[in-house]
Amino acid sequence: MKIGDYVVRKKYQRDILFEIFDIKDNVYYLRGVELRLIADSDIDDLELSEVQSRQEEDFTIERQPVIRGKVLHLDGDQKYLNMCQKKYEELKIRADCYYMPEGEMKDHVVELLEKHKPQILVITGHDALRKSRDKADISQYQHSYDYVEAIKNARSYQEDKDALIIIAGACQSYYEMLLASGANFASSPKRINIHALDPVYVASLVANESVRNYCDIEGIINHTSHKQSGIGGIDTKGVARKIYPTRG
């Protein structure tokens, strides 16, 4: 097996498709092809697999004569960021996308908000709840504290939750703390893995909803990979503005 191969782990019943992205000292480092998940394994537990990707082309946005909201997307994984950026382009959503380690997001989020003036901020990358499984202890999460600090700094820039919609978190993130820190949408209520594109779906649907309306939160969440187990949120207004006069 080599870097770039697609594999599954036998010990976990071949449940997740991974790509090998590095090999060091006979340890194989894996990145989820679709789920925001990093893992490592020895070769004995790995099995080569064909790509079995989810059909993303089913997700579309109805074309309307509106100015859609603008997104600032910070991602702790370059490959997933590229996937997200491609999807924004397909959905005709204006998005400024930046790769940076999760621990650096808090230091750059305000300057990027000032530069791009988005209506929607996505803060994502990787996360994990450690083996102790104490869900109420933020130190037991790989990057939830980093997301919390980035959210707080973003809210110091714009405290109005309808003027700046924040979508935050990754796999197994401390959902309740992300919301309490100021996020509108967050992962993961059931501490499960989320799809790499889940933040894009949420951002795109909010970007397309009129400023006159509150978003259909349940409808948005039901577009994500694991629905209410993976993403939750609070009442939030849309950010799209209709163009007048309309035809017909």
Describe this structure in words.
With 248 residues, the chain is an alpha/beta fold. Helix content is 25%, strand content 21%. A hairpin with a 2-residue loop joins strand 2 and strand 3. Helix 2 packs parallel to helix 3. The N and C termini lie far apart (60 Å). The mean pLDDT is 90.
Structure in a nutshell:
With 248 residues, this protein is an alpha/beta fold.
Question: How would you write the strand order of the largest sheet?
Answer: 8-7-9-10-11-12
Task: Estimate the mean pLDDT confidence.
Answer: 90
The H-and-E topology, N to C, reads as EEEEEEEHEHEHEHEHHEE
Number of strands: 13
The biggest beta sheet reads:
6 strands, mixed
Secondary structure category: alpha/beta
Compute the number of structural domains. 2
Strand content: 15-25%
Q: Fraction of residues in helices?
A: 25-40%
Summarize the topology.
Blueprint: E1 6-9, E2 18-24, E3 27-32, E4 38-41, E5 46-48, E6 66-67, E7 71-75, H1 78-90, E8 95-99, H2 105-116, E9 120-124, H3 144-157, E10 165-168, H4 175-181, E11 185-186, H5 198-208, H6 217-221, E12 232-233, E13 241-242
Parallel strand pairs: 7-8, 7-9, 9-10, 10-11
Antiparallel strand pairs: 1-2, 1-5, 2-3, 3-4, 6-13, 11-12
Features of the shown structure:
globular, 6-stranded mixed sheet, Rossmann fold, single chain, alpha/beta
